[in-house]
Amino acid sequence: MKHVPRPLRLAALAGLAVVAGIGFEATSAAARSTPAARVPLRFAYLDGPPPGFAGGFGESTCHACHFEVEPNTAPGRVTVSGVPETFAPGESYPLTITLSRPGMALGGFQLTARFEEDGAQAGTLAPGEDEAERVSVSESGGVLYAYQRAAGAIPVSADTARWTVLWTAPADVPASAAATGPGNAAAVLFHVAANAADGDDSADGDYIYTVELRAVAARP
Q1: Which of 54, 58, 120, 193: CA 20 to 30 A from 167?
Q2: How far apart are CA 89 and CA 133, in angstroms?
Q3: Which CATH architecture is the domain 29-217 placed in?
Q4: Would you state the pLDDT for residue 179?
Q5: Where are the domains of the chain?
Q6: What is the dihedral of CA 77, 81, 86, 92, to 10 degrees?
Q7: Cα(83)–Cα(168) distance, rounded to whole angstroms?
């Protein structure tokens, strides 16, 4: 952690575009071994984006601040693997978010899991295995938001960032969410918004990608 003596402007990795007085420098051996370690991170948003920018259910995405180009502009994409077609109550599923774009210097994301019918929180979210320093989860308005921390903003390889989030399906499906899927089974929507940033301390040159996925509760 490095103290910054005066307020400085920076595009947040996913969400707000202005942050003042937050400092961070990558020091791990893994970080130093990646090309992105050459990008100065001392002004990065250490604790990730604010909640409410994953998209879906009337929410904004990172495009609210990073609006130079339209979302999902090629080349580049965000994908989520591990979302089951059907989920068992109380079962845990590792979800892997992969963001890629040529020339990307920093990456960020935000993910939610909510019942399709009413947008209420569906199950729980937590950092994946060995991801506690790279991924965090916060709650706002009863909804959990998973997102990158500053250490997780560094791409894992050239032009690619990746994170793992553990989703534990709800043990009980509320009656209010029991009529949206096939055969009256509850459905859960996953929304992800991600930012492939160029690391130039502005919102210009940043590309936003979004995806929505759906899982349905297994029938008893």
Answers
A1: 58
A2: 28
A3: Sandwich (2.60)
A4: 52
A5: 29-217
A6: -130
A7: 11
